[in-house]
Amino acid sequence: MKTVTGIAPVNIAVVKYWGKRDEDLILPINDSLSCTLSTDFMCAKTTIMASPTFPTHRFWLNGKESDFNNERLNNCLTEIRKRANPKCGDLLNWKLHICSENNFPTAAGLASSAAGYAALVSTLSALYNVEGDISAIARRGSGSACRSIYGGFVRWNKGAKPGGEDSIACQIASASHWPEMRVLILVVSDDQKKYSSTSGMKQSVLTSELLKHRAEKIVPGRVDEIIKAIKLKNFEAFAKITMQDSNQFHAICLDTYPPCFYMNDVSRMIIELVHAYNDYQGATKVAYTFDAGPNACLYLLQNDVDEVASLINDIFPSNTNPKKH
Ligand code: DP6
């Protein structure tokens, strides 16, 4: 019997991935860029037991047994085994018991699949002593998972090769480059989202003209600009691009037919509050971004955390939504 445990962090995109050019290989139509959070508060944990006596593979997600015959899980396993250290020998034939857990809401638009697949793939790679970049394998579990393989500020290059070998993540800057950067996560709702990211983006690719325009004409410049802002630690530029990209992503969701509504009235109140706060300060102190759900992620610098957190506490008292984390 061999047992390995691994954890992986959540990442929150500031230039969003939305749309695939290959559904099976999970190849995106545009580059994306995110910040990986520290694992102190939010992470996914995977424990894998391999044994010559297990009759079948089994998989548990947050304590509940789930079907092992999940295509994405099996794609990750197949790809990692191709890269296994030859010294693994018989271990490669042993059946696995895999337990995955998140310490935050699953499927509420809080990047749970990203951390989950990153934890799965890094734990599998530890089991089989895989060397080198594993982001392309994590990508086979969930596109955004490839960015959770690295810490700090991470770019996912869409790549050009049909097989996706160059569709990998890379670190732009480490977390220690900009240690004052913070994220506040406002959980507006931890309900399961109505449309998954996977189905939402598929429908957007099929129906949204705005998506094509964004991928071809907007994202390349935006990625260059935000990398420049990160390198120079220019928060105002970083924040403006982050908010514009979140808004454009949700505009694409509205431009999708039939439309996907991920944000709700509380999400929109948060957007208005951030703009009002920044106007009052005479400077861009806070940036919001929303993934495929109503929950807000606010980027800000350490010095402003107390004031912004107390403002949020005043406006949304603790027994009402959003919950503070
Ligand atoms: C809005 O990575 O969850 O969070 O590749 O189909 O698993 P699949 O989608 P997923 O999509 C994430 C979309 C997003 C934006 C982002 O994280 O870049």
From TrEMBL:
NCBIfam families cross-referenced by the UniProt entry: mevDPdecarb
Gene from which the chain derives: AUGUSTUS-3.0.2_03224
Reaction equation(s) it catalyzes: (R)-5-diphosphomevalonate + ATP = isopentenyl diphosphate + ADP + phosphate + CO2
InterPro entries: GHMP_kinase_C_sf (IPR036554), Mev_decarb (IPR005935), Mev_diP_decarb (IPR029765), MVD-like_N (IPR053859), Mvd1_C (IPR041431), Ribosomal_Su5_D2-typ_SF (IPR020568), Ribsml_uS5_D2-typ_fold_subgr (IPR014721)
Keyword terms, alphabetized: ATP-binding, Lipid biosynthesis, Lipid metabolism, Lyase, Nucleotide-binding, Steroid biosynthesis, Steroid metabolism, Sterol biosynthesis, Sterol metabolism
UniProt cross-references to SUPFAM superfamilies, sorted A to Z: GHMP Kinase, C-terminal domain, Ribosomal protein S5 domain 2-like
Ranges of residues in domain Diphosphomevalonate decarboxylase-like N-terminal: 8-169
EC number(s) on file: 4.1.1.33
Gene Ontology molecular function, alphabetical: ATP binding; diphosphomevalonate decarboxylase activity
Job description of the protein: Catalyzes the ATP dependent decarboxylation of (R)-5-diphosphomevalonate to form isopentenyl diphosphate (IPP). Functions in the mevalonate (MVA) pathway leading to isopentenyl diphosphate (IPP), a key precursor for the biosynthesis of isoprenoids and sterol synthesis.
Top-rank taxon, per record: Eukaryota
Residue ranges annotated for the Mvd1 C-terminal domain, each copy included: 183-323
Protein family (similarity comment): Belongs to the diphosphomevalonate decarboxylase family.
Keyword Lipid metabolism: yes
Protein name, per record: Diphosphomevalonate decarboxylase
Pfam families: MDD_C (PF18376), MVD-like_N (PF22700)
Gene Ontology CC: cytosol
Biological process per Gene Ontology, one example term: sterol biosynthetic process
